[in-house]
Specification:
The protein is mainly alpha-helical and about 80 residues long. The protein contains four helices and no strands. It has a domain of about 45 residues. The longest helix has 15 residues.
Protein backbone atom coordinates (compact mmCIF):
# COMPACT_ATOMS: atom_id res chain seq x y z
CA UNK A 1 0.00 0.00 0.00
CA UNK A 2 1.35 3.42 -0.89
CA UNK A 3 0.67 6.64 0.97
CA UNK A 4 1.08 10.20 -0.23
CA UNK A 5 3.87 12.28 1.27
CA UNK A 6 4.49 15.98 0.75
CA UNK A 7 8.11 17.13 0.79
CA UNK A 8 9.66 20.58 0.69
CA UNK A 9 12.71 20.45 -1.56
CA UNK A 10 14.72 23.22 -3.19
CA UNK A 11 13.72 23.97 -6.78
CA UNK A 12 17.20 23.22 -8.16
CA UNK A 13 17.18 19.80 -6.50
CA UNK A 14 13.80 19.02 -8.01
CA UNK A 15 15.02 20.04 -11.48
CA UNK A 16 18.05 17.74 -11.14
CA UNK A 17 15.82 14.93 -9.86
CA UNK A 18 13.54 15.30 -12.90
CA UNK A 19 16.51 14.99 -15.25
CA UNK A 20 17.72 11.88 -13.42
CA UNK A 21 14.20 10.50 -13.43
CA UNK A 22 13.93 10.81 -17.20
CA UNK A 23 17.36 9.24 -17.71
CA UNK A 24 16.68 6.26 -15.45
CA UNK A 25 13.02 5.78 -16.31
CA UNK A 26 12.11 5.83 -12.61
CA UNK A 27 9.72 8.23 -10.98
CA UNK A 28 11.06 10.62 -8.38
CA UNK A 29 8.81 8.91 -5.84
CA UNK A 30 10.40 5.55 -6.66
CA UNK A 31 13.94 6.97 -6.40
CA UNK A 32 13.18 8.53 -3.00
CA UNK A 33 11.57 5.31 -1.80
CA UNK A 34 14.59 3.23 -2.88
CA UNK A 35 17.00 5.67 -1.23
CA UNK A 36 15.05 5.65 2.04
CA UNK A 37 14.93 1.86 2.00
CA UNK A 38 18.70 1.66 1.55
CA UNK A 39 19.55 4.03 4.37
CA UNK A 40 16.91 2.51 6.67
CA UNK A 41 18.30 -0.98 6.06
CA UNK A 42 21.84 0.10 6.89
CA UNK A 43 20.88 1.88 10.07
CA UNK A 44 21.62 5.30 11.42
CA UNK A 45 25.30 4.71 12.18
CA UNK A 46 26.36 4.62 8.54
CA UNK A 47 28.88 7.23 7.41
CA UNK A 48 28.13 9.62 4.56
CA UNK A 49 30.71 7.85 2.40
CA UNK A 50 29.00 4.50 2.91
CA UNK A 51 25.63 6.04 2.07
CA UNK A 52 27.02 7.28 -1.24
CA UNK A 53 29.01 4.18 -2.14
CA UNK A 54 27.74 2.64 -5.34
CA UNK A 55 26.28 5.91 -6.58
CA UNK A 56 28.91 6.22 -9.29
CA UNK A 57 28.54 3.47 -11.84
CA UNK A 58 31.91 3.90 -13.53
CA UNK A 59 34.43 3.28 -10.77
CA UNK A 60 38.05 4.19 -11.32
CA UNK A 61 40.52 1.32 -11.63
CA UNK A 62 42.46 0.55 -8.45
CA UNK A 63 45.79 1.22 -10.17
CA UNK A 64 44.75 4.72 -11.30
CA UNK A 65 47.62 7.24 -11.10
CA UNK A 66 45.77 10.20 -9.58
CA UNK A 67 48.76 12.54 -9.93
CA UNK A 68 48.74 11.90 -13.67
CA UNK A 69 44.97 12.37 -13.84
CA UNK A 70 45.29 15.69 -12.00
CA UNK A 71 48.17 16.83 -14.21
CA UNK A 72 46.23 16.00 -17.38
CA UNK A 73 43.17 17.80 -16.06
CA UNK A 74 45.16 20.93 -15.27
CA UNK A 75 46.90 20.85 -18.66
CA UNK A 76 43.54 20.66 -20.39
CA UNK A 77 41.95 23.27 -18.14
CA UNK A 78 44.71 25.82 -18.66
CA UNK A 79 45.40 24.84 -22.27
CA UNK A 80 49.03 23.96 -21.64
Amino acid sequence: MTTKLTLSIEKKTIERAKILSSKTGKSISKMVEEYLNVIAAKGENVSAVEKLSGVLKNKAPENMDWKEVKANYLKKKYDL
